[in-house]
Amino acid sequence: MMNKKTIYTTILLCVLFLNAFSQKDSTYRKEGFTLGLLPAISYSADLGFQYGGLTNLYWYGDGTNYPNYNHSLYLEYSEYTAGSTLMRLYYDSPVIIPGIRTTADFTYFRDLAMDFYGFNGRDAVYNKNWEDDSSAEYKSRVFYRHHREMFRVMTNFKGYIDVEKPEWQWMAGLVYFNFNIGPVKIDRLNKRKDDDDKLPPIDGIYDKYLDWNIISEEEAQGGQHAYLKAGLSYDTRDIIANPTKGMWTEVFLAHMPSFLSSHSGSYTRLNLFHRQYFALTNSRNLTFAYRIGYQHKLGGTIPFYLLPHMSTSILTSATSQGLGGSKTLRGISRNRVVGEGSLLSNIELRWKIWRTKLFKQDFYLGTNYFVDMGLITQNYKIDKSQVPADEYDWYFNDSSDKPHISYGLGLKAALNENFIVSADYGIATSEQDGTSGLYITLNYLF
Question: Residue 20: what pLDDT?
Fold first, then answer.
């Protein structure tokens, strides 16, 4: 991983250099078609070499709605040589059905090492030395992981309640999941590895939770589920992709009836998300933004692998996972904070430091500074009675959750306001939540 001082120094130099050549914000009108391309290349010691790419195609028509678009089609494909695969198609349009914003998502994601730390935040003890192959306490680099294959189909619809008050909208949608869950496939990850680098054939935390009956047999291998959602939205944002003023608030219910599930249970969850944006300068190049998210189970039984799922009306990435990771708590380990109810907050200062025209395209560079916080507000009830007494303190501390906090900064590069390449670097304030993370994705966080 990159040295923290190197990252901060590089970003600071970029900010100072670009600010010296900064231009005033300009009016611009984009017509017709445009696209952005981004390769996906990385390497993991256990997952192998990642290759692939993504593209986002935009159609602006006659440019009347610019910087907002008429149609957006997002395509992504990437694969690791060990077998992890991501394929995604996402479509978004405010005009295909007059007066109704329509989105549709089709995603297949096979993750050979999905993060899994247990439940209820700080009640689940995390021992970083068990993952560190240079430590005398080392167990496995994938000790806090499990295998997960996910296929998802999502549809969302938003329409005006009163055309004279366009800020008020109704929301409705249907989401379908098919999960295949299991322990990490050690033999598959060990292929083509030297003997000294192979993962040891030991039980991880997922296997132990199965042995202790914390994860039930019915849920152990996944299942098929669909849920309905409906609610209200209040939206006064000036620009969809990167607002500089206004607010966007959504409240809705997500309900999975038992007849739409391969399991016997059902559940209902309340979701509330509020986002607000303030322009701090007349040029709107400096913006203060914050997001508050709240989820609460009203009743029923949520399968353990759906606990991290955050219901939303718009997906800005392939997954909507929380809390921890690139889309919720940057710098904190993915899925570190999992329960039946949670509170999320993100605070950002966004600065567009340079704007210009390149090849007849509108282009800007920006930076952002952030603080993220998450908290479990409703515990996931588990039975710890079968945990061996001599191992109990290694995995649980029976404490109430406390805020999980991270902070950091990032860089943004935007083409025609909507194709935004994002690099965020976050640092966790507690070793129980991990260390840090560098995330190169698309779009602002919210």
Answer: 37
Which position has the token pair 């292929």?
191
CA distance 329 to 335: 9
273 vs 234: CA distance, rounded Å: 11
Residue 421 pLDDT > 60, yes or no? yes
Strand partners, 247: 276
**Which residues are paired to 80 by β-bridges?**
50
Q: Is the peptide bond before 67 cis (omega within 30 degrees of 0)?
A: yes
Would you tell me how many other CB atoms lie within 10 Å of the CB of residue 165? 10
Give 118's contacts (C-beta < 8 A, 6+ positions apart): 124, 125, 205, 209, 338, 395, 396
Where helices occur in 55-164 by DSSP H, the ranges are none
The token pair at 198 is 């192979």
The Cα–Cα gap between 251 and 230 comes to 9
* Residue 223, domain extent: 4-442
The residues pairing with 351 across neighbouring beta strands, listed in sequence order, are 286, 367
C-alpha–C-alpha distance, residues 111 and 159, integer Å: 35
Please state the domain count of the chain. Answer: 1
pLDDT in tens, 359-407: 778 899 999 999 999 999 999 999 999 999 999 999 999 999 999 999 9
Q: In the structure encoding, which two tokens stand for residue 163, read together?
A: 């055309």
pLDDT in tens, 27-84: 566 788 888 888 877 766 667 788 999 899 999 988 888 888 999 999 999 998 888 8
Minimal CA–CA distance to 175: which of 250, 255, 71?
A: 255
Q: Which tens digits make up the pLDDT trace of 335-356? A: 999 999 999 999 999 999 999 9
Burial class from Cβ neighbours inside 10 Å (0-12, 13-18, 19+) for residue 9 reads exposed
Six-digit token string for 398: 């029976």
CATH number at residue 29: 2.40.160.50
Q: What is the pTM of this model?
A: 0.87
Q: Position 167: which residue type?
A: E
**What gap in Å lies between CA 270 and CA 293, rounded to an integer?**
11
Cα–Cα separations (whole angstroms), residue 90 to 69, 73, 330, 350, 377: 15, 6, 24, 26, 32
Residue 91: φ, ψ to 5°: -120, 140
d(CA 289, CA 282): 16
The CA-to-CA distance between both ends of the chain, in Å, stands at 26
CA atoms of 37 and 304, how far apart (whole Å): 36
C-alpha dihedral sign at 187, 189, 195, 196: negative
